[in-house]
Specification:
Length: 129
């Protein structure tokens, strides 16, 4: 159902149905192959597409292969380099933050002006009554 590729830098899932039914529930809270593949992608694993398949033709046998640069048979020390991809706050540009701060400042100023006008209108309304 699951084994390393010949070169030792990938793994194969031969029968996805059996893999999902028997293997996934042992290690995950689900038995959904699509969720498993999504998790693999989040950790940087990629599906291997062979040239003869062209990526468009479904292989004759139920064989799905995944690889990761740090997933290599006999190289357990590399496994610590496999990390979940996260969007870091440092990837947000300082200019974007400045623009947002400017927008917030303008909104707060506009609110203060409107509040002043409202208070003025309330005073006039009370005087008219």
């Amino acid at each position: 159902v699951f084994f390393f590729g010949q070169s030792g830098n990938s793994f194969h899932v031969f029968d996805q149905g059996q893999f999902a039914k028997e293997v996934l529930p042992k290690y995950f809270k689900h038995n959904n192959m699509a969720s498993f593949v999504r998790q693999l992608n989040m950790y940087g694993f990629r599906k291997v597409v062979h040239i003869e398949q062209g990526g468009l033709v479904k292989p004759e046998k139920d064989d799905t292969e995944f690889q990761h640069p740090y997933f290599i048979r006999g190289q357990e020390r590399l496994l610590e380099n496999i990390k979940r991809k996260v969007t870091s706050v440092s990837s947000i540009k300082n200019e974007d933050i400045k623009v947002r701060q400017d927008n917030v400042t303008k909104l707060l100023t506009d609110i203060q002006v409107m509040k002043g006008k409202q208070e003025s209108m309330d005073s006039k309304l009370i005087a008219m009554k």
